[in-house]
Amino acid sequence: MTTTSSSPRLNRARLAQGAAGLILGGGLGYLVGRLAKQGDIDVSGLTWSDAMAVLIAVMLFVTGAILVAATFSKRLAGRIMDPASDRPARPAQISVYRQQALVMALSGLMMAAPVAARLASQPLSSQLAGAVMAAIVGLFLLQTFLNLSVWTRADEMIRQMVAEAGAVCFWVLQGALFLWAAAEKLELVPALSAWDMMTILMGFYLVISSVISVRRGLT
Amino acid sequence: MKNRLKILRAERDWSQADLADRLEVSRQTINALETGKYDPSLPLAFRIARLFGQPIESIFDDGQA
């Protein structure tokens, strides 16, 4: 049975995902606001890239955590992986899916960790900074292993989509980086930190990945 | 690239998921192939041709003929 990109089941799945995002995002925003109001955290020192990084990190971590939980039900995992299909996910599919979800969750943790450390310790202690960096390196190595595993087991179309997203990101951002660097050298624009550039890269990659997914009919 | 995948699948009364299982790809890949949103790799094109017992050129049409 052929499914269209606008089937009722697919639209219900999109609505559910959107609603979940609104609820979780709203809940997180309320929590942060409450903690800031109580004086438990001081967000006044956050830069635009810190705020953007935390937003992306929360999206990745929460989505990844929910998807990992969903993989413990074959039927639910099948529904989330492919809303247009009736079939429960097979064990091999669940394994790849769980690894992809873990990659997302780990990305979120790694992006949030430096900002969270700076919020937790003002001024930032060298011991905390060292400990957080060691944790990030460990998580990065684990995530790299999971990414390679997912790559080798993924569907050929998924691999092509990942390669396309990487290529688009490279060509667009290297051009943008060059132009900004030239303007910065000429003192026409302010300097960007490595954290600023990393946040822009992650945000752009997520947007491009979503666009490519839509073009292939996955979402 | 145009193709006759949907027709060949319907002749055998296979769902997209059935065809995906036989070709060891995801159902979304089959859907993308049938809707022209994705062109298969050469190994996958050969597997498709062998599965349906037809030459690749009779299944896929790049419009150059």
Description:
The complex is a heterodimer of chains A (219) and B (65). Chain A has 219 residues and is mainly α. Helix content of chain A is 79%, strand content 0%. Chain A has 7 helices and no strands. The longest helix of chain A is centred in the first third of the chain and has 31 residues, at 8-38. Chain A is globular, with a radius of gyration of 20 Å. The model of chain B has no long low-confidence stretch (mean pLDDT 93). Chain B has helices spanning 5-11, 16-23, 27-34, 42-52, 56-59; strands at 2-3, 60-61. Chain B has 5 helices and 2 strands, in the order βαααααβ. The two termini of chain B are 13 Å apart. Chain B is mainly α and 65 residues long. Chain B is globular and about 30 Å long. Classes of the chains: A mainly alpha (219), B mainly alpha (65). Chain A binds chain B through residues 1-3, 82, 84-85, 87, 155-158, 160, 215-218, and chain B through 6, 15-17, 25-29, 31-32, 34-35, 37-38, 40-41, 44.
Summarize the structure.
Chain A has 219 residues and is an all-alpha fold. Chain A contains 7 helices and no strands. Chain A is globular and about 55 Å long.
Distance between the termini of chain B: 13 Å
Sheet having the most strands of chain B: 2 strands, antiparallel
Quaternary state reads heterodimer
Classify the helix fraction of chain A into a percent range. Answer: over 70%
Provide the succession of SSEs of chain A.
HHHHHHH
How many individual β-strands of chain A?
0
Shape of chain B: globular
Tell me, what's the shape of chain A? globular
Structural class of chain A: mainly alpha
User: What is the count of β-strands of chain B?
Assistant: 2
Helix-strand pattern of chain B? EHHHHHE
Contiguous runs where pLDDT drops below 50 for at least 5 residues of chain B: none
Largest interface: A-B, 16 and 18 residues
